[in-house]
Amino acid sequence: MLALYLSCGAVALCAALYVYMRRSLTYWQRRKVPVVTPTTLFGNYGPSILGKRSLSEVAQDIYNEHKDERYVGTYFMLTPLLQINDPDIIRSVFIKDFQDFNGRGMHSQPSYDPLSAHLFILAGQPWRNMRVKLSPTFTTGKIKYMFDTISECANHLREHVDSSVAAGGGRYVENVRELVARFSTDIISSVAFGIESNSMKNPDSEFRQMGHRIFESCLDVNLRHLLLFFGGDVMKTFSIRCVPAAVHNFFTRIVDEMIDYREKNGVERADMLNLLIKLKNEGFLPPDSNDTAEEKNRHSDVNESNGTEARLTKLSGKDIAAQVFVFFVAGFETTSTTTSFTLYELAKHPDIQDKVVAEMDAALAKHGGKVTYDTIMDLPYTDMCVQETLRMYPPVPFLTRQAMVKRQLPLSDVVLEKGTRLMIPVRALHYDPQYWDEPLRYDPQRFTEEAKKARPQLVYMPFGDGPRICIGMRLGLVQVKMALLTILTRARVAVAPDMPKEVTLDPRCILPSPVHGCRLVLSARK
Ligand code: HEM
Fold it and tell me: In terms of Cα–Cα distance, which of 484, 521, 524 is closest to 175?
């Protein structure tokens, strides 16, 4: 009898589960939204969940198959995800109707996971307050203020290239992806934490190890990334943090110690931690004499109107830890990916490399042989190359937004429930032949002022757009150009013979990571 009850119970459970799944997977159909047929267990993201294709490549496949639709309903397992293909709708979501779409749909749980309360994850008023506070940290004036620290890291990179070239008798082979990851780690740990991580000299430095732990492709890390987007309730129920315990403990300990040390010893240093400690003690940062007129205006707007609440609230030690943590996470992998892919493309295109190097030599001659902030700003062609790299290899290949209220999707009659997630397939837009002639070809000329004006808005967004645009964009570009200048003024780059002809991205990594690294031959310049 018991066996009969158990069998009936199991059948009823399976039937209920089946009905629930079928109902979940007809969410878009019921709203008359064009839909990509999902599979029962994984929705439309099976290849990505199974580690066969990256999330952004799946979004790109969906885009290519459905690009006549302005938006298309998909499912991440059972979670509805509306993919937006139309740049006009994207513009409304990012800019015009931003107040209703200001979240990313990620989960912050400060009570047991203080590092998750950072700018990238926060939404609504807490995000707004934090953004108002942190924006003055990234102005031109503040980047100039940190420039000497960046230069010091570049000196270590130069010494490394010089000594390796000399040791190799004039040339050597290096995985530049790892090399520039070490350089970026040194910069971010130095400008954000005020700590010399010394990764250039010691590839196993603690900061470099943490970088590996955060982005390594393993089940633990991949699961946390997915849960951050799609499993807030699971994270809450089981008190799961956004990063493994070792990473959490490292960052919280180090920031506590640094704040304590600086406050006790009255230490001031030209870095972000210094600025954040000011935000902790005074609540706001005064404008800098080196800021542009636009930055100064924005600053006074912020302090006089909507910034009042933000101005009065002071940052806590935990807030500081979360923000420097996100500067590290958002700042090191993005810049090192961009630098290494630019070097790779220049190695494949010697004519473009010649033009870049000639421009660098001319800029150095103009600035008395010194690498200053102005030297870096005097590299317009190099900048076009970097922009083209960011088109072909966007370090953040998809973006998300979340409806903060029940409302219509702009320029449509679809009603979105509060909490609905939107997916913006950045990489797919960057490769659409409708906007980019021969998209597989590396061509910096796409970024002349005329070419940029001729293109529709919001088909190119390596830094996102609107009020949530990357806060570290200018700092990131300075870092990338500094690395390029340091390497290319010492050595010529060519693709190593053992590098495959085409780049294959690791399908298990959330950010683009070439499976075979990026092996280049560096030869002393004549
Ligand atoms: C080439 C380098 C970089 C690229 C391509 C990049 C790209 C991006 C993108 C696409 C976003 C999302 C924007 C959106 O949703 O509209 C973002 C946000 C962000 N980035 Fe960057 N980033 C870079 C460098 C940096 C650096 C150096 C830092 C800090 C040191 C940084 C800190 C952040 C932060 C804190 C956010 C969250 C902003 C917010 O939500 O208000 N990024 N970045």
Answer: 521
